[in-house]
Amino acid sequence: MKRISGINTPLKGGMAVLKPFDINALSPDGYIFTRWLAALPWWTPLVMLAIIWGYPTIAYAQSGLSIYDAFDALWRWMPFLLVSGFSFNVLISFWTLLIGTVAGVALGLGQISTFGPLRAFSWFITQLFRNSPWLVILFIVLLALPFEFTLFGQTIRVPDWMKGVFGLSLPIMANISEIVRGAVQSVPTAQWEAAESLAFSRRQILWQIILPQCFKRMLPPWMNWYAILTMATPLCSLLGIEEIITLSRQAMESEDNQPELLVPFYGFALLLFFVYCYPIARLTMRLERHYAVKL
Amino acid sequence: MKNFFKTAVSGLALAAMSVGSVSAQCTNDVWNKVMSSGKIVIGVKADYKPWGFRDDSGNLVGMEIDMAMDVAAKMGVEAELVPVQSSNRMQFLEQGKIDMMIATMSDRADRRKIVGIPGPNYYTSGTNIMAPKALGFTSWEDLRGKKVCGKQGAFYNQITEERYGVEIMAFTGNAEAKQALRDRKCVAWVYDDSSIGSDLSSGNWDEFEMPLASEDDNPWGLGVPLNEASCVFGNFMSGMQYNWHRDGSLIALEEKWGIKPTAFLKMQNERNSDWIK
What we know:
A: mainly alpha, two-stranded antiparallel ribbon, B: 2 domains, 3-stranded parallel sheet, globular
């Protein structure tokens, strides 16, 4: 490597040289959360379980309800919380990813359109939903959407969880849009020029040459957003949608709201989310490394 | 032909007018919808033991659920139970998401502007606090300026705040509120006296007491759509409640769900009981 005094070797006389400011070197990348999650060792849930078990034994040593009673209650409620609760979170996350991806790809392609107004519009929508708090979007969607609508004389009821799906889809859509735009723009312009010289039309270049290459690049950030989204689904409980956190609360109510139940019940939810998201995070980081080498 | 049109138009206009004049009073939209579809959607609590809660296989059970099932049975329709929360129950009824509700709602003047609450009221409860015995509260005034835990959506949060100048910390769940009480984040937990009573008798709260005189003894009301409160729906529900009081089925339900017998139900039963035995 070439030695430049004051930059990569100690300064020898002369004026100090200010390094160029590289925002990417200083700000965290989009994977910060997944990277952290994937870096956790596999035995993390066991440690969590030990803490969940151990903490209340110490904290509530004198109180009436023993920790065994609390875990006994959790054991009885586990099938219900898993089947009616957590599976709902997974369902919400699937639908959100589906709608968010379809809308996000369309919006992302809009952002690289040659038609100016469409590009500006797509950019605005993307920025609007990328930079709004998720909970605010959720509240607006839940209160603004009708609970049923009539289509071709048929009354269709929109269940609450579907409204949650729409609400969560909007920020996901905006982030997928950025992924698509970034991936397309990361393909060297020489590819566009080469394809143009072979008389491909713009649409052909995009669909047959650029996007197939983008697919691999988009996969890891897309999965990254899936993990983030799944962990955001308990937000829906604030809107009264019946998912794991709402049902955990109701379960604790049925067990007379003993505070000793809080750690086991919420700890169980934590464990479920970890077990679900951890493999996704590991796979995401592996794919990311894999494709990073190949490019 | 011209005449035919004239007759048809004036006939239609007349029909429209007559329909219009009736609709100003009672259209019974929700009632008719329930009767024609054969299904009534009733909002109940899933977080208020023993009035409405879940058993550990997830089914909704409780005193109010039994009442809701009775309503559906008397109407001869199928019941669909929808769990509601204190913070969204009136909105759900207003939007038409539920046809009616039996959801531990206190009957308040401001609430009657939003939902129809037909009389007679089916239950009553007062406001009290659960506080550590060590603090030795004797009157509501002792709470002035102190932090008190509560549950979101309860009407007495605001009342106690205004009347006694307490600082309410409202939680989404009662378990969280009680944990905060135990962690001494607040000096007391303000809630229904009947609920606090059953907690204290469970034996898990030995260092705590319900020291004050209950306030705001407030009847509970079930809710029907506002514009049907004085139509078929409201009158039907009044009849249901009257008969529950008259034949003592509410007292029986109270016993079934282990609720401390209230003087209110006993009085209502005596007042309305059949003079022919």
